Amino acid sequence: MPIANAEIARLLREAADLLEIQNANPFRVRAYRNAARSVEDLARPVIPDDANTLAQLDAIPGIGPDLAGKILEIARTGSLHVLEELAKEVPRGAAMLMDVPGIGPRRARALLERLHITSLAELERAAKERRLRDLPEFGERLEKKILEALAEHRDEEHRLLRPVAAQYGELLLDHLRAVPGVTQAEIAGSFRRCRESIGDLDILVACGDGVAVVDRLVSYPDVEEVLAHGSTRASVRLRSGLQVDLRVVAEESFGAALHYFTGSKAHNIAMRKMGQARGLKINEYGVFRGQRRIAGRTEEEVFKSVGLPLIPVELREDRGEIEAAREHRLPVLVELDDIRGDLQCHTTDSDGRDSLREMAEAARELGYSYLAVTDHTPSIRVAGGLDRKGFLRQMKRIDTLNVGLKKMQVLKGAEVDILADGTLDLDDGTLQALDVVLVAIHSHFDLSPREQTRRIVRALRHPSVDIFAHPTGRLIGRRRGAEFDFDEVVGAATDHGVMLEVDSQPERLDLDDVSCRAAIERGATITISTDAHSIANLRYMRWGVEQARRAWATAANVANTRTLRQFQRLLHRER
Ligand code: DGT
Ligand code: CA
Ligand code: CA
Ligand code: ZN
Predict the structure, then answer these.
(1) Does a structural domain hold residue 556?
(2) Which ligand neighbours the alpha carbon of 501 most closely?
(3) Closest ligand 1 atom, residue 198 Cα
C-alpha cells in the first residue's frame, strides 16, 4: 500500500525544520528540502516493495543515496527514525513556528530556548503578553507583525493546496474502490470544484455494504484518529492533519449525493430554490415530487429535473452559473488538451533545475508546439538572473537548439523584474531582441496601492512587454499579494495589448479565479503558464487550467491555445 508522496515530503520537511532549529549543517538541511521537493513532484507514488525503488530514487536529481534510503523508509513504515530522534530534542511543534512570516530558524531557537514556546498558541499568548519584544531577535515591530500574521493564519487554518490533497485523495480512493460491491467512488466538495485549497476531503462511495467501506477507511494505515464512525458514514483524520469525511450511498442516490456534497453550499441552496418553485424537493438522496423519487442516479438527472443542462463543477459557486445554464449561455470551458504551448519556464541558466535542452525536449514530449524560456533578470540575485550578455548567449543557443527540434519551437523570452519605480530590469535593445517579454514584481509588495498601480502601469506601457506574469505575487497561505487598482491595471493591459497570466504553480495560482474572471470580462486575454523550474513542473499546467475554468475561461480567452503562428500575432514583435 503506497503512501502519498506529499506525505513523504511533509516528513522530510519537518526533519529539515527541526535540523535547522538545531543549527545543523546547512547542506544537510538543504538536502532534505531538495529531496522533499523532488519526491512530491514525482508523477507516481513511490512503490515501497519494489527491489529497484532505491536505485530509482537515487537516480532522481535532488535525491542522493542517503535521502533515497530515508524516502524508502517512510514509504515502507510511514515514519522516519531520524525525525523521531530529532523530536526528542526539539518538540515537533517548534517546526510550525517557522511557518510564521518573520520567524526563521534563529528566532525559532530563541523562542524555544528562552521562552519555551513550542506551539503557535503559545507564540500568540507570548506576543499578546508582550514578551517577545524584549528578546534581542525580535522587538516591538516584529511582535506586532507576528500577531497580525497569526490572525491571518487562523483564517486559512489547515487548508491544503489542491495538488497535495489530490495525492492523498487518489490513494485513498484506490483503497476504497477495492471493497467488493463498490460501483462508484469520487471525491466531492471543494476538491471536486477545483478550488485552490481544500479544507477537508469529502469522499462519496456507492456500495450496498456501507459497513465494509467504513471499516476499510478506518483501517487505512495513514489514519491517525477516527473522529466518528457509523454504518454509512465516517470521519477520520490522517497523520498529516487532513480530515476525510466518507459517506456511503445507494447506487440510485449517487448522482444526488454527488451533487449535494460537491456543493458549493450556496449553489445547493440556489438549486433547491429552483426545485421548490417546481414543487420538487432536492436533497442528497434524490429529487422528490411528494414521496416519489424522480431523479438521483446521475447528476445529469438532477439538473434535468429542474430544466437545466449539467453545470461544470468548477462553476458551482452561485456566481451566476444557474442563470447562465437556464439561458443556455454556459461557457465551453478551456481544457488541458487545448493548450499548445507553455509561456513561462526557467532553466539552469537562472534558478531552474534542468537545462534549456532538457526543458525543450520535455515540452515536446508533452505535445507542445512552443515553449517560452523565460529566465530571470539580474535584480533577482537569489535566482542568479541573466544580464544582457547572458540573454544574448542564451538566444544563440536557442537558435541552435531550434534547428534540431522538430515540430517544436523554443521562444526566446525573459521574466523581467519590474523595479520599484516601474522601469524594467533589462535594456531596451535586449527586450527588442527577445520573442516574448514577461514582466513581474518580485519585491516591494508593500507599496501603497496608488504607488503600486503607478509602478505596474508604467511597466505595462513599455512597448516590448507582452505578458504580466503572476500579477499579484501572492503565495497562498504565506504572502498576500501586492495591492493595486485592479481595474486600472487590467485597463492598461488591454490598452497596450499585454496579456495577463494565470501562473499554475500550486502556491501561486495567480491570477486567482475571481480576478481572472473579472479580467476576462473586461476584455483581457490570458495566458496559462507553469512557471516551471524543472521538467516535472511542466505538468503543473493542469492546475492553471482548472483555475482558468473556475474563471469561466474559454479556449478563445487563453492565448496559448493558439497555434504558434496565431500566438506570434499577439506579440509586440510583429507590430
Ligand atoms: P472546504 O472543505 O472548506 O474546502 O469546502 P467544501 O465545499 O468541501 O465544504 P464542506 O466540506 O463543509 O462540505 C461539502 C459539501 O457539502 C459542500 O460543498 C456542500 C455540502 N454542504 C455542506 N453543508 C451544507 C449545508 O448546510 N447545506 C447544503 N445545502 N449543503 C451543504
Ligand atoms: Ca470539503
Ligand atoms: Ca467535509
Ligand atoms: Zn516570477
Answers:
(1) yes
(2) 4
(3) 4
Q: The pTM is what?
A: 0.93
Closest atom of ligand 1 to 193 CA is: 7
264 Cβ below 6 A of ligand 1: yes
If one counts the domains in the chain, the total is: 3
Which of 116, 134, 156 is where one domain is finished? 156
Q: What distance in angstroms lies between residue 85's CA and the mean position of ligand 4's atoms?
A: 38
Asked if residue 529 lies in contact with residue 344, where contact means CB atoms within 8 angstroms, the answer is yes
Q: What is the pLDDT of residues 315-355, one digit of tens each?
A: 999 999 999 999 999 999 999 999 999 999 999 999 999 99
Domain holding 114, by residue range, is 5-156
Residue 214 belongs to some domain of the structure? yes
Residues 381 and 255 in one domain: no
Q: How confident is the model at residue 465 (pLDDT cuts 50, 70, 90)?
A: very high
The whole-chain average pLDDT of the chain stands at 94
**Residues 231 and 210 sit within 8 Å (Cβ to Cβ):** yes
Residue type at 74? I
Task: Over range 431-447, report the average pLDDT.
Answer: 96
Ligand 4 (ion): which residues have CB within 5 A?
440
Asked whether residue 220 falls in the same domain as residue 238, the answer is yes
- Inside any domain, residue 200: yes
Q: Whose CA is nearest to atom 5 of ligand 1?
A: 190
Question: Ligand 1 pocket, 263 CB below 6 A?
Answer: yes
Reduce the secondary structure of 257-308 to three states and give it as a string. HHHHHHCCHHHHHHHHHHHHHCCCEEECCEEEECCEEEECCCHHHHHHHCCC
| Predicted confidence (pLDDT) per residue in 159-211, tens digit | 899 999 999 999 999 999 999 999 999 999 999 999 999 999 999 999 999 99
Same domain, 187 and 223: yes
Q: Is residue 267 part of a domain?
A: yes
Atom of ligand 1 nearest to the CA of 245: 11
Q: Quote the ligand 4 centre to 355 CA distance (angstroms).
A: 18
The CATH number given to whatever domain includes residue 14 is: 1.10.150.110
Ligand 4 centroid distance, CA of 481 (Å): 13
Task: Enumerate residues with CB within 5 Å of ligand 3 (an ion).
Answer: 200, 202, 245
Handedness of CA 152, 153, 154, 160 (dihedral sign): positive
Q: Does one domain contain both 256 and 360? A: no
190 CB near ligand 1 (under 6 Å): yes
Spatial distance between the Cα atoms of 34 and 207, rounded to a whole number of angstroms: 42
CA–chain centroid gap for 485, Å, is 25
Residue nearest to atom 28 of ligand 1 (CA): 265
Nearest residue to 316 (alpha-carbon basis) of 306, 328, 325:
325
Final residue in a domain of this structure, among 123, 141, 156 = 156
Q: Is the CB of 202 under 6 A from ligand 1?
A: yes
